[in-house]
Write a structure and sequence with these properties.
By secondary structure, the protein is mainly alpha-helical. The protein is about 85% helix and about 0% strand. It has helices at about 1-15, 25-55, 55-80, 85-135, 135-145, 150-160, 170-190, 190-200, 205-245, 250-260, 265-285, 285-310, 320-375, 390. Helix 4 (about 85-135) crosses helix 11 (about 265-285) and helix 9 (about 205-245) runs antiparallel to helix 10 (about 250-260). It is globular, with a radius of gyration of 31 Å. Mean pLDDT is about 75; it is low at about 155-165 and about 370-395.
Length: about 400
């Protein structure tokens, strides 16, 4: 009987089904998992962009306030260091912001208005000259220059007609500017309260890491705003002086165009430089156009090899391909405003990700170090499963 039961048991063991093999190998499953994570991240980003577009009336002043705080944040900290009240220091900083931005805007707009007709006429003349040699390309440029004012008027009327409750485009701009100015005041004055609130609401022990990421992102915005403004001012002054020496008409308007275009890296400098060269070609001839090209290239070399490494290399480190993709994405979402805001926001996100990667790298290094130390000791008590085991093990170290 015992032999029969042994045979039955061995027979049952032989009849057990083998474990089912997975349909996909482990590599394919890992790829599928990463694809799922990528799709989830893309969905979250798309939802965030959609919310920003829907709530643009509130999001745009917040972003402008962040840029204003980054531009004049050092002035506020200097005033606070001089024992001024936080509210007074923030108010004085906002007053300086109004003077700086308003003065720069007035100079740029007045220069463009005064010389705009002359620049457009020069572009039309250049287009006619180019059409004799390049045919359709010059004709297209001529049509674009001829219809520039009509395009601007149609764009303004379309934007104004889409406003709710009969508000005009100018009224919406003024309201957004006032809200951005107020938010700048509160961002400067209550930055310490924001840090304390972050420490209170942060889960677990993540407050120092979150504060480090926030500071790194804001430092990237500060570096971009201060560095770009300084570089734009130098570029505009150098190109304006060069065009004045070459006696190119509309030099101040072209310099203002260079100053505004500098806030759109690569693309803005290319467009403003091309316009300056075409104006020089139309009014002063081919030789002066070559000299204008030399001036633009010299300024770009000065910016790329001297100014940017000295001013922005420590705060904003973005690959040119990343900058171009950010500008394209910003233009597709919010037009010109998106092009202006995309690069500083991308720099902030890059700074936050860099800080997050550094944090996790430090955690992994400390975890590997503690793991090697616990395994190396003889008689480390690996058989202890009680609560006293892990708590008592760090005592000898």
């Amino acid at each position: 009987m015992r032999n029969d039961s042994d045979q039955d048991r061995h027979g049952a063991e032989r009849e057990r089904p083998l474990p089912r093999q997975p349909l996909l190998p482990i590599e394919a499953r890992r790829v599928a998992a990463w694809c799922l994570v990528g799709l989830l991240i893309a969905a979250v980003v798309a939802l965030g962009v959609w919310l920003c577009v829907v709530l643009s009336a509130a999001v745009t002043p917040v972003l402008l306030a962040l840029l204003g705080s980054g531009l004049l944040g050092p002035l506020y900290r200097r005033l606070v260091a001089m024992k001024l009240n936080a509210s007074l220091a923030a108010g004085l900083t906002c007053a300086v912001l109004v003077v700086v931005v308003g003065g720069a805007g007035y100079i740029v707009v007045s220069a463009l208005v005064d010389t705009g007709d002359q620049i457009i006429a020069s572009l039309k003349d250049a287009a006619k000259d180019l059409s004799k040699h390049f045919g359709a390309a010059g004709t297209s440029l001529d049509d674009l220059a001829s219809n520039a004012k009509d395009l601007v008027g149609k764009f303004g009327s379309t934007a104004a007609s889409g406003l709710l409750a009969g508000f005009s485009l100018v009224g919406q701009f003024i309201a957004a500017a006032i809200l951005a100015l107020l938010l700048t005041f509160f961002f400067l004055r209550d930055s310490g309260k924001a840090v304390r609130a972050l420490h209170e609401w942060a889960p677990g022990n993540s407050a120092p890491q979150l504060e480090g990421m926030a500071r790194r992102g804001f430092q990237a915005i500060e570096g971009f705003m201060r560095g770009t403004t300084f570089i734009a001012l130098i570029d505009a002054i150098c190109i304006t002086v060069g065009l004045l020496i070459l006696q190119v008409p509309g030099a101040f308007g072209l310099g203002a165009l260079v100053f505004v275009g500098a806030y759109i890296p690569y693309l803005g400098a290319f467009i403003s430089g091309a316009v300056a060269i075409l104006v020089a070609f139309a009014d002063r001839g081919f030789v002066i156009a070559l000299w204008a090209l030399g001036v633009v290239l010299a300024v770009q070399v000065l910016e790329g090899h001297v100014l940017q490494p000295m001013i922005q290399s420590r705060t904003v480190q973005l690959h040119p391909a990343t900058v171009m993709l950010a500008i394209t994405a910003g233009a597709s979402v919010a037009g010109i405003l998106g092009m202006l805001l995309s690069v500083p926001l991308t720099a902030a996100v890059s700074g936050v990700l860099h800080e997050l990667r550094k944090h996790y790298a430090a955690d992994s290094d400390s975890g590997s170090g503690s793991g090697s130390g616990s395994d190396s000791g003889p008689g480390s008590g690996s058989d202890d499963t009680g609560p006293a085991g892990p708590t008592a093990s760090p005592a000898p170290s």
